C-alpha cells in the first residue's frame, strides 16, 4: 500500500466497498433481517422482563425494605435507650439535689444547735460569774465594814491612851467614840 | 485494508446459526441475538445472582444492583408520579437492556445491537403500546382526553387535537431514532477517526500526523461511553414521561 495519496483507500472504502461487501444495502435498513431481529429481541427482552418483574426486582425491593425496617427498628431502639438514659440521668440529678439539700439542712441545723448550746453555756457561765462577783462584792463590803468597825475601836483606844498620857486620867469611852464619830461621820458604818 | 476502512461493515449482521429463509426474510441466530441474550444473562447475574444472599450490608455487586433499582425507581416516580410503581420493572428492564447493549457496542470488535433501527423501534413500540393499552384499560375513552389539553379555546381545539395526535404518533419514532442515530453516528465517527490512523501511517511522510486522529478517536471513545449511558437514561426517562400520560391522561 505505497500509494502517494492518503485519502484514496478511504474513499474507496467509503463508497465502493459496501457495494461489494453486502449487496449495496445499509445493514440497519436491511429489511430482510427485521423479522429475525424482532423475534430474538422479543424472546430476549421477554425473558428479561419476566426475570426482572418476577424474581430480581421483588428480591431487591425486599432487601431494601428489610434494611429500611431494620434501620428504623434500630433507630427506634436507640431513641428508646436514649430516653431511658435521660430518665435515669434526671432521677440521678434529682436524687443528688435532694441529698445536697438534706446535707445543707443538716449542716444548718447542726450549726444552729451548736450556736444555741454555746449561747446557753455562755449565759449560764455569765450568770455564774455574776453571782460569784456579787458574792465577792458582798464579802468585800462586809469585810470593809468589819474593818471600819475595828478602825473605830483602834482609834478610840489610841485617843483614850493619848488623852490619858497627856492629862493623866482616862477619858470617858463613849465621849471619845462620839468625838470620833463627829470627825468622820460618813465612815461610821 | 479496504475492509477495515469501511465504517458500515461493523453494522453487518453475521448469522451464527441459519434457519433458512421465509419469503424474503432471512431467519438466523446472529451475533446481534447473541449479544441480546448475553445482556439478559449479565443483567440477571447482577440483579438475581448478586443479590441472592439478601445481605443487609451489601457487597459491591449487590450495591450496584440496588443503586440501579433505586435510580430507576426514583426516575419513574419523579416522571410518572403516583401509581407508577407497576411500571418500574418495564422501565428497569428497558434501561438495563439498552445500557448493556450500548456498552457492549463500546467493546472493540463487539457489535452494537442498538445501532439497528428495528431493535430500537420495537423497544419504542413496546413503550407506546404499553401506554395506549394501559391508558385505555385504566381510563377508557377518558384516555383520549390526552389529545385535548384543558383551557384551549373552542375554535383552536381541532388544530390542537391534530397537533397532539401527530406529536403522540411521532413519539415512538423520535424515541427509536434518537437512540439508533446516536449509536450509529457514534460508531461511524469512531471508525472513521480510527481509520485515519492506519491510512496516514501507510501514506509515508503523512504518518507524522497520525497521532492527531488517534487522540481524536480516544476523545470520541470517551464521548461515546457518555452517549451510551446517557441514551439509556434518556430512553428510560422518556418512557417514564410517556407512561405518565397513561397514568394521568387529564394532565
TrEMBL record, chain B:
It comes from the Bacteria. The chain crosses the membrane at residues 33-51, 87-111, 118-139, 159-181, 188-209, 215-243. The keyword Cell membrane applies. Its main location: membrane. It is found in: Cell membrane; Membrane. GO terms for cellular component: plasma membrane; proton-transporting ATP synthase complex. SUPFAM superfamilies: F1F0 ATP synthase subunit A. It is a multi-pass membrane protein. Keywords: ATP synthesis, Cell membrane, CF(0), Hydrogen ion transport, Ion transport, Membrane, Plasmid, Transmembrane, Transmembrane helix, Transport. One of its GO terms (molecular function) is proton-transporting ATP synthase activity, rotational mechanism. Belongs to the ATPase A chain family. NCBIfam families: ATP_synt_6_or_A, PRK05815.2-4. Key component of the proton channel; it plays a direct role in the translocation of protons across the membrane. This is ATP synthase subunit a. It comes from Methylobacterium aquaticum.
